Amino acid sequence: MTKFMDVHHGMKGITAEQLEAVHNADLEQGKAEGVHFEHTWADPETGTVFCLSESPSAAAVRRVHERAGHAADEIHRVRLGL
Amino acid sequence: MTKFMDVHHGMKGITAEQLEAVHNADLEQGKAEGVHFEHTWADPETGTVFCLSESPSAAAVRRVHERAGHAADEIHRVRLGL
């Protein structure tokens, strides 16, 4: 298992309720792929959302986000962390 | 105090030791501005570094990174988080 940070653009004006719905959909869809979304952060002004996950692969993160209805624009394997 | 996620590009091949040095410089420089860097993550393959901080402003985050010798390419005020 490795940590991944994925980034979504174009989500300007996202609300707390919408972020929670997105995160819950990710958690639900992640179960089948063994992906766990630990945290998510959103900047409603620039429309940027960051998701930190533990996942077997970047491909699994991609599939989970696609199935949850919001494909990621970038997926980074953050091998280093402090 | 608000949370910020800033992003640095162009850091391909960054090592664990380099990330620790960068993070320590941020912590040290952050004291004067009241900025606390909580976490940092790096993807050496794409050269992307993410820093999560608590700061009085985006401008303070920008100044701290500049003084530490590595200006941020993006600074997002992540007003929402889960």
Report on the architecture of this protein.
Two copies of one chain form a homodimer. With about 80 residues, chain A is α+β, with helices and mostly antiparallel strands. In chain A, about 30% of the residues lie in helices and about 35% in strands. In chain A, strands 2-3-1-4 form a four-stranded antiparallel beta sheet. In chain A, a hairpin with a 4-residue loop joins strand 2 and strand 3. The longest helix of chain A is centred in the first third of the chain and has 15 residues, at about 15-30. The interface of A and B includes residues 23, 39, 52 and 78 of A. Strand 5 of chain A pairs antiparallel with strand 2 of chain B. Chains A, B: Pfam families: SCO4226-like (PF14026). Chains A, B: This is SCO4226 family nickel-binding protein.
Set down the secondary structure blueprint.
Two copies of one chain form a homodimer.
Chain A: E1 2-8, H1 16-30, E2 36-43, E3 48-55, H2 58-67, E4 74-77, E5 80-81
Antiparallel strand pairs in A: 1-3, 1-4, 2-3
Pfam families (chains A, B): SCO4226-like (PF14026)
Organism (chains A, B): Streptomyces ovatisporus
Protein name (chains A, B): SCO4226 family nickel-binding protein
